[in-house]
Amino acid sequence: MTDTTAATSATLEDRPGFETGYRTKGYRAYVLSSLLVVYIFNFIDRSIFGILTDPIRNSLGLEDWQMGMLGGLAFATFYTTLGIPIARVSEKTSRMMIIVASLTMWSLMTVLCGFAVSFATMFAFRLLVGVGEAGCTPPAQSVIADYFKPGNRATAASIYALGVPLGGMCAGLAAGPINDYVTGENVHALLEGWGWNWATGLVDWQSLEGWRIAFIAVGLPGLLFALIIGLTVKEPPRGYTDPPNASKPERETFGAALKKLSKKPTYVHVVTGAALASFAGYGIAAFSTSFLLRTHQLTLTQAALIFSLVLGLMAAIGVFLSGFLADRLSKRYPTALSWMPALGMGLSVPLYWLGYLSPSVALMLPPLMAAAMLHYFYLGPMYAVSAGVVDARTRATAVAITLFAVNLIGLGLGPTLIGLLSTVLKTMMISGADLGLTLDLCKEAVGLTADQATACSSADARGLQWSIIIFASIYGWAAIHYLLAGKTLQRDMIAKTA
């Protein structure tokens, strides 16, 4: 029995990496779970701003266009520009070290967002959050590709991508209740109860608003987890799981990598489609809780729970299914990575229209739940294609270029432009009311008649509502590009999924 077991073990060890993956199945699961948690922290710290949009806006006296800049441009400026240089560094140094340093950086800056006192200081802290988060996904996707064999990569990529909806869910579950129910006095009393007198003197806890405490609460755990993964997750050998026929060239220059990718029509269409989907998604997400507060008069806790728990759960299901189904359907339908996300996003458009135009929360939720699941079908295939059209030495760079385009257009412009559009539509609506109103008068809300106050509130809600509907229509445009990618998918992929 012992000899047989030993022989079997030896046989497994002798099998090539593209058949077995790197290290044991259990350890691969731990690595993937750890990277998923990192990505969840990534999106908690990114998404919490959208959850807290209205409390921050009211506290700092800002407009939607300013909140759009803070949620989009401020974060994306360094997030997009540093992603590629960091990915290039990760091609020749420890990817896990970069991930640990990045997690530490963005977690600390998230904590500091809780102490912002103006548009300028919040802008600066959001810039630095983006600096930290730039070093997360490109090296993480490269690590995943070296741990998992080609036939499992889309599933692994989609599990990692669950960090997007799960991070949003966690942000909502934390931010809403903390903002509504936790006060600075509660925190001060808690610290005193623990005997942490040294901490009570560091900050004037009793004066902190709920949204500030929320930033601090979600930022601190990331600092601890950075230490954990730094000690437990090992760096895999590059190209370990590549098939024997896959080329293993020396590290390419950035220009050569970009030229190679530009000649892959599959990659170009997938990135274009993903950028458009991200543009719509980030824009809508930045103001989803604000929509629920303004249109359906919910509390922030109620809005955050609906946005994060209900819609976030459906989005998570969509992200996982995108990779899980793609891996299995690709064996029979080689272009599944193309047509499946195209179908999902195309169907989501009328469902979003129906949901955001519904007069009640009960009628709104079913179509929005279906739409949230379907439109996220694009995410897993985006990562699988980005990593699959190039060899091992260029994967992190390819993913970084993908994320540069996706985040520059999506994260950088999406929240910024939907906030601007909302402000423009609000201005047009209050002007059309013919009540002598301006944005400043509505913001001050002092000395307004009942009709004027109603007009301001209605314009604030309807301007944002129609901005969201316009943005949701962009998913149809994104679907066309994913569909076009199918024409060259089989030709362009290096690591086959079969």
Number of helices: 26
CATH fold topology: Growth Hormone, Chain: A
Q: Determine the CATH superfamily.
A: MFS general substrate transporter like domains
The portion of residues forming beta strands comes to under 5%
Percent helix, as a range, is over 70%
If you had to describe this structure to a student in words, what would you say it looks like?
The protein is an all-alpha fold and 498 residues long. The protein has one domain: MFS general substrate transporter like domains (Growth Hormone, Chain: A). Helices cover 78% and strands 0% of the residues. The protein is built from 26 helices and no strands. Helix 11 runs antiparallel to helix 14, helix 11 runs antiparallel to helix 18 and helix 18 crosses helix 21. The longest helix has 38 residues. The protein starts with a helix and ends in a 6-residue tail after the last helix. The N terminus is likely disordered.
